[in-house]
Design brief:
The complex is a heterodimer of chains A (221) and B (306). With 221 residues, chain A is an all-alpha fold. Helix content of chain A is 68%, strand content 0%. In chain A, helix 4 packs antiparallel against helix 7. In chain B, the strands form two sheets. Chain B has an eight-stranded parallel sheet. Chain B is globular, with a radius of gyration of 18 Å. Classes of the chains: A mainly alpha (221), B alpha/beta (306). At the A-B interface, helix 1 and helix 3 of A face loops of B.
């Protein structure tokens, strides 16, 4: 790209806010009542992290892998890529995240959700925000309920809840699993910012808190 | 900045072949827009076209697709002809195709497309795909988008023109980028059209590119007339001066468009909109009187001082 310094963030925005939020409305209408299932799965993740039954790492990774694959295909590839050609290149990253989660869950000693430090507890709080608070946002920002972003259906709450759960995780693959959700939230936050949407700070804040929690843990070591 | 006097104004208009023609409107019909000649062929085009950047990128949303089709219908009903798009504009191309199909393929259409791929060899395939999206047998105009891989794409486009697969060849830039290279290409190649950003506050093109287009006999398409809506939003709260009525401008959008269209080198301005009332308002800006050189300076000074 020539004269790159003359470009503003807004220059990369290919669609209007109306089109963006209607995309969630259409996706919700097409996916309903899967929302109930994905929300139940999200709550089950939190319970699994708290109670840690046998093979909890496997089941948590399996659920997250399935939902990343689903969101990457049903929302990013099938809807969002239609109005933003760059998303066609991003959607496979959700597939890669699903694969990494599946590998982490299947490998012996790959993932255990056994961290109970401050970062781990903060993670559970972030996970609950992604699960419970995100679907409640539309009226706060003057949008219809039908545009709600739901965990396992829309990418932002899926990424946020995943990061929260991962903060409670230990295992060799864990550092790698943060990258894609964090990068997604950065991209999403910047997109919302370019749209002039007041919700832009939410994905950015979730990503920042996650990074800060990881940094705190490293310092505390 | 080049100052346009009455003399240079008339001279440039004559040189560019963009002389203003006001067609007579049928009784009871809305006034027809000003027509401008494409210098390389003499073909007359209405001076306001329809851009599709952002506004037509509505994906598969059936409600918004129908709204876009209504905008296209209102555009043709008001006397418009040129619709401009690009493979870069997301789903805009299939949405145009949907609208044209719904309207029964209006004969008035002047299709202006772009080739936009850094892989020069992919140009022909991309143009073919764009044509499928629009559902047209051939494009009237294909432009090299933002000068991406321009050398090879221009070769391809001139060959297509020679074979009758497109009618005109052009290049585009926006927001004042790469004007030096743009000028070089204009001097070196027999382009039919150039597309650039020009409006009452972005006047850099007046210095070299617009006079050069007139000198080289190239039609000029003006993109981002409202700075992607930022200019009209900024002016929204300001009062339109009383003297705007002298040139028939009833809104800020018409004020801006009349400024653009009154430059003698400009052939077509392509504002983009999602609203039927706005598309009518835009085309209406190309009817009635246009400002002369003195009025143009008054308009620019007024906006600058706000």
């Amino acid at each position: 790209m020539s004269e790159w310094w003359t470009y503003r963030l807004e220059d990369f925005l290919l669609f209007s806010p109306r089109v963006y939020w209607r995309m969630f409305e259409l996706n919700n209408a097409a996916s309903w009542p899967l929302h109930l299932l994905t929300l139940a799965a999200g709550l089950a993740l939190v319970v699994l992290v708290l109670r840690r039954p046998r093979r909890h790492g496997f089941w948590i990774a399996l659920v997250l892998a399935a939902l990343f694959a689903f969101v990457g295909w049903s929302f990013l590839r099938s809807r969002y890529a239609a109005i933003n050609w760059a998303i066609a290149y991003v959607a496979p990253a959700f597939g890669l995240q699903a694969l990494l989660l599946a590998i982490g869950g299947a490998a012996r000693g790959g993932l255990a959700f056994d961290r109970r430090d401050i970062a781990g507890r903060l993670g559970l709080l972030i996970a609950v925000v992604g699960l419970v608070a995100y679907p409640l946002l539309p009226p706060l920002f003057g949008r219809p309920w039908s545009s709600a972003e739901v965990f396992g259906i829309a990418p932002d709450p899926t990424a946020i809840t995943t990061l929260g759960v991962l903060l409670a995780a230990s295992g060799g693959l864990v550092p790698l699993l943060f990258a894609i959700p964090l990068l997604w939230l950065l991209l999403s936050g910047l997109t919302l910012h370019a749209m002039g949407d007041p919700q832009a700070w939410l994905p950015l804040l979730a990503a920042a808190i996650t990074v800060a929690a990881l940094a705190l843990r490293r310092i505390a070591r | 900045m080049m100052i346009i006097t009455r003399r240079t104004f008339v001279k440039a208009a004559a040189a560019s072949g963009a002389a203003l023609v006001l067609p007579a409107a049928a009784p009871g019909a809305p006034p027809a827009p000003v027509m401008r000649a494409v210098p390389s062929s003499g073909e007359m085009l209405p001076a306001v076209g329809l851009g599709t950047w952002i506004t037509f990128n509505v994906g598969d949303d059936p409600v918004l697709r129908d709204e876009c089709a209504e905008v296209i219908a209102a555009f043709f009903a008001a006397g418009g002809r040129m619709i401009d798009s690009s493979p870069m504009y997301g789903s805009s191309q299939p949405v145009i195709g949907y609208g044209l199909e719904k309207l029964g393929r209006p004969e008035a259409l002047f299709s202006a497309e772009k080739v936009w791929t850094s892989s020069a060899g992919d140009g022909p395939a991309q143009i073919k795909q764009s044509r499928r999206f629009w559902g047209v047998p051939r494009f009237d105009l294909v432009q090299v988008h933002n000068l991406v891989a321009w050398e090879t794409h221009l070769e391809t486009l001139f060959a297509m023109k020679a074979d009758g697969r497109i009618r005109y060849v052009g290049i585009t830039t926006s927001e004042g980028r790469r004007h030096d290279l743009f000028e070089q290409i204009m001097r070196a190649h027999p382009l039919d059209f150039v597309q650039l950003t020009y409006n009452v506050v972005d006047r850099e093109a007046e210095e070299r590119l617009l006079p050069l287009a007139a000198e080289r006999g190239m039609a000029v398409i003006v993109n981002r007339p409202f700075q992607q809506g930022a200019l009209t939003r900024q002016l929204q709260g300001e009062t339109l001066p009383d003297w705007a009525a002298e040139i028939g401008a009833g809104t800020w959008a018409q004020f801006i468009l009349k400024f653009i269209l009154s430059h003698p080198s400009v052939t077509v301005a392509i504002p983009a909109t999602t609203r039927v009332d706005h598309v009518r308002e835009n085309v209406m800006a190309a009817t009635g009187p246009l400002p002369d050189a003195a009025m143009r300076e008054r308009m620019a000074a007024y906006v600058r001082d706000l």
